[in-house]
Model the fold of this input.
Amino acid sequence: MSSAPPAPPRSDRPPSFNKERDEFIQTFFNKGARFTQELLRENELLNQQIGELEADNAAMRLQIKSDQAIRELLTKITELETEKAQLLSEVREVEAKSSAVEMTYSEVETELANLAGLYVASRQLHSTMNVSSAVRQVKEILEQLVGAKTYAIFFLSDDATSLVRIASRGLDDSETGRMDLHAGLVGKVFSSGTAVIAEDGNLPSRHEADPAACIPLRIADRVVGVIVIVATLEQKARFLPVDYEFFKLLSGHAASAIVAARLFADADRQVPGIESFLEHGV
Amino acid sequence: MAEYACLIIEDSPMMRQLLVFALARVRNLRVTEADDGVDGLRKLANARFDLIVTDINMPIMDGLKLIRRVRTDPVHKDTPIIVITTEGAQEDRHRALQLGANAYITKPIQAPQVIAKVKELLGVP
Done:
């Protein structure tokens, strides 16, 4: 058995009221729908922002990591730079030491060469008891070791009033063969016993009135002659330290070598008897 | 280490001694001395030398004649030769180089200069 649904109760409200009610409900629902849509949009926006922030965060994390690596690299670079500076400083020190050693080596080599020159000159000077040979040795020292181009060797005359030229090179024989004991620079050097040596760099173009060097020749404390180096070879612009040593050698040994050779010749090359040595023995 | 032989031909005993002293500073170099060109040739005939140092102005046989003879010697035709000349002897120097000398040194000699030239020609440090 079926029964019909009950008929809605008949409203006794006025129709205008129902319409107002329906409009209100409609408006209410519409507002709700709009609010919901706004909420959904906002939610979507917020989700989007969250996504963006997460992405930024991730990027920042990477950046921080990268910065850290850079900081480490920079620290490493600074350390390496310090190490490099230290190594360079050490290299410079070693180079300076090496340069100093090289310089010392070169100085020692030069000193050895100078000593060898002096030894050879001294040995040659006393290697002969022949007058002309002794004079030749003096000339060789002047020419080969000192580099004299024009020069003269003067000895005191027998009457001790003048200086007589006993050997020369590159000078006119007619000139300055004999000179007054007190004349000019040569006389001054003879009287004072002190060498006069030009110290400028113009030695090759010197002349007789202004010679490159005047060296007194001594036997013990007596001056018995003078060597005059008028000019030097072209490549010898100035005297070197070793030349001063040659001058000392010549000053102290040349005259005694020549005079000893002369005396030996005068004695018919006879060695004195033993008695003459015993007289002077201690 | 290789040993080198050098012949010094110089009539002046003083110069010869100086050269001997200078070359004593070169390691493994054996030095023989000769008084003049003829003596030099005699020594060259009896031994092999790696270097010749010779004066130009010498009695009996001068340095130029010696160079000419050495350059025709099958044993020593390529041996380096250093000539020692005096300042004004530019013609001699030129002639010596033309005849086959390899280098020259001008008097007064400086030991370091001689050593450097000898080392250069022997190719030793």
